[in-house]
Amino acid sequence: MAGTLYVVATPIGNLADITQRAIKILGDVDLIACEDTRHTHKLLKHFGITTKTISYHDHNEEHRQKQLIEMLEQGMNIAVVSDAGSPAISDPGFRVVRSAIDRDLAVVPVPGPSALIAALTAAGLPTDEFFFAGFLPSRTGARQTRLHELSTIPGTLIFYEAPHRLAATLNDARQILGERKAVVARELTKMHEEIRRGLLSQLVEHYASVEEPRGEIVVLVDREVLENSAADSETKTVSELVAQFESQGLDNRAALKKAARELKLSRADAYRQLVAERGRT
User: Which residue, 36, 141, 151, 199, shows the most beta carbons closer than 10 Å to its own?
Assistant: First the structure.
């Protein structure tokens, strides 16, 4: 009989956040596949768990998942964990879960802490619709392109960011997404937890003037562009907005679509207005 793959969430900082079910599963399985065995051993030792561990991380994920699938098919029960939070969410785990499903093996979620959900619930931004974008690209051009793609999503935007890129990312977000409410959640559930709320421009100013922050960071951006920013757009013509967005890297089609949205026009109306404006020049 084949074994079961358990996808187990672990604390993102405060060890008291682990669930009783997670403790039981980690103690009962035959093997724990973990992102960093040394890190996970600290957690297991704290709860008196002696289950054998094996490394499973970004650098060996493709090779290791094949081994784990073979073990599951041989009848072993295996838990997969990340260093913190829920596996497979911007962490290793996706490949082995997909492989297990492809082979009709049982995959059981053991839910628990998640940095993005913890940040969202405390942010004070809309929670009815949200989009998790993982880590934005590290290179400026690629990051700005990604932010342009995210700008039309009608929900709260959530992404993880490294401390040394936070100020640059917030500045890019302000320039591309416009003025919006935003939140930076840092070191959640830990001793130095910080949740800073404000406008994107205020957060840009703050993090540009302080020492580089430390720890794990979640950035959340409201879906709504504030009226005072929209008012600036409403004073511009379609052709001016298209030129502005093209200068930011959008192609003509995407620039026209965004200009139409800013001016609350249909794309067809915006196109007709653009043709008319250019015909007058």
Answer: 151
